[in-house]
Specification:
By secondary structure, the protein is α/β, with parallel strands linked by helices. 35% of the residues lie in helices and 26% in strands. The strands form five sheets. Strands 3-6-2-1-9-11-12-10 form an eight-stranded mixed β-sheet, with helices on both faces. The chain has a four-stranded antiparallel β-sheet with strand order 13-18-20-19, with helices on both faces. Strand 1, helix 1 and strand 2 form a beta-alpha-beta unit. The radius of gyration is 23 Å and the shape is globular. The two termini are 38 Å apart. Bound molecules: aspartic acid and magnesium ion. Aspartic acid binds next to loops. The site of magnesium ion has 3 residues, from loops.
Length: 403
């Protein structure tokens, strides 16, 4: 007998038919002799609709009250799903985040899980119940409801799988698994059978969009075997697990991210501490910096450019402008019409030819590169956002990922 955690995304439980479809899948797993814990997201666009409702009342709603509001979406889906399982003649009980002891820190709207107490779930499993848990939500030390950030139900599922030492954590969604590129823009994108935690982490954080990246971080940390599957068919899906060390470099996928903006500081003093001052200011204000580029100095001046998320651009710009005297630059230039395109695969660092091949694909497509960054597992370039589709397809073809 195995313990299986299944997570169903909002699109998989969007309406009555889909709720019953999911209930049937759960019952199948249960009938095969497994203990089943299910984590669900809010139905369809519920979370977005709730955010809109709040906006009708307040421009800057209290974060505590926002979490109180958004957590209701998942409370609807768990109760409906438990009822559907009852209709099929099987025992199920729905539980909220606080009922399962999902303890988080106190940062409303983006809280992190600290501990899962889980005794209630264990008790329900001992009574042979299918346990249906609200994703995305937890409780903090003030006994207030918190939420884990958009898409956070994946992370709830992995946290439960880790706490319960589950044999498998299945993430059900509306696509067949993790693809070599976004299938909406690359026609011959292929579903991967397997991907390592490290590769998945890069693909998730680079904007592949199938998994909440904190869920991958957590599954790597606790070695939770995870699988991404389609809730509407029986295809195998993609298994995410510990990767084997490989000598040979294999490019696994091409990710793209449109949530990027570039900031350039022109003519900053070319002296020790210049970069330190800029990036410590960013860190102090929680601005995540990604690609960094510094030009060669000339006449005691240099340029420093870097990328941030679009949502952080205003804050970053304001901080830089307020500190112009301290930093001593001439001008801040920003660009929002940029995007990051990356190739991901273990062993990148020992294969300089791989980066060259990616640049060649872009050259052949006539696409200019603004910035480059490399790591052990990826090569990223910043290009103009108008070229994203062309770039991703050119790179995908060059590495023959569709074959
Ligand atoms: N319902 C939440 C959201 O829409 C959490 C999730 O779907 O994972 O972001
Ligand atoms: Mg999701």
């Amino acid at each position: 007998m195995s313990l299986i955690v299944q997570k169903y995304g909002g699109s998989s439980v969007a309406d009555k038919e889909k709720v019953f479809n999911v209930a049937k899948r759960i019952v199948e797993t249960y009938k095969n002799g497994n203990s089943v814990v299910v984590v669900v997201s809010a139905q369809g666009d519920t979370t977005d609709d709730l955010i809109e409702k709040a906006a009708e009342i307040s421009k800057h709603p209290s974060k505590r009250e926002m979490d109180m509001l958004l957590s209701t979406g998942e409370q609807i889906s768990i109760s409906l799903l438990a009822m559907a399982i009852h209709e099929l003649g099987y025992p199920a009980v729905s539980l909220t985040g606080w009922q399962v002891g999902m303890e988080t820190d106190s940062q409303y709207s983006k809280s992190r899980i600290k501990r899962v107490e889980a005794s209630r779930i264990k008790k329900e499993l001992d009574h042979n119940n299918i346990v249906v848990v609200a994703g995305f939500q937890g409780i903090n030390k003030y006994e207030d409801i918190t939420t884990l950030g958009r898409g956070g139900s994946d992370t709830s599922a992995v946290a439960l799988a880790a706490a319960l030492h589950a044999d498998l954590c299945e993430i059900y969604t509306d696509v067949d698994g993790v693809y070599t590129a976004d299938p909406r823009i690359v026609k011959n994108a292929k579903k991967m059978d397997e991907v390592s935690f490290d590769e998945m982490l890069e693909l998730a954080s680079l904007g592949a969009g199938v998994l909440h990246n904190r869920s991958v971080e957590m599954s790597r940390k606790y070695n939770v075997k995870m699988c991404v599957r389609n809730s509407m068919n029986d295809h195998e899906g993609t298994i995410v697990k510990e990767g084997k060390k490989m000598e040979r470099m294999v490019v696994k996928g091409v990710a793209h991210d449109l949530d990027v903006a570039r900031i350039a500081l022109v003519n900053i003093e070319d002296e020790p501490g210049a970069a330190f001052k800029v990036f410590s200011l960013m860190a102090k204000h929680n601005v995540d910096v990604d690609i960094i580029l510094q030009s060669i100095g000339r006449e005691n001046k240099k340029d420093i450019s870097f990328t941030v998320k679009k949502s952080s651009l205003d804050v970053a710009k304001k901080i830089l402008e307020e500190n112009q005297d301290l930093l001593g630059y001439d001008e801040v230039k920003v660009r929002e019409d940029v995007a990051k395109v990356s190739i991901v695969g273990a062993g990148m660092v020992n294969n300089p030819g791989v980066a060259a091949k990616m640049f060649e694909a872009l050259y052949d497509a006539g696409i200019n590169i603004h910035m480059i960054s490399t790591s052990e597992i990826k090569v990223s370039v910043l290009i103009s956002s108008a070229n994203v589709e062309k770039a991703v397809n050119a790179i995908h073809d060059k590495f023959e990922l569709g074959k």
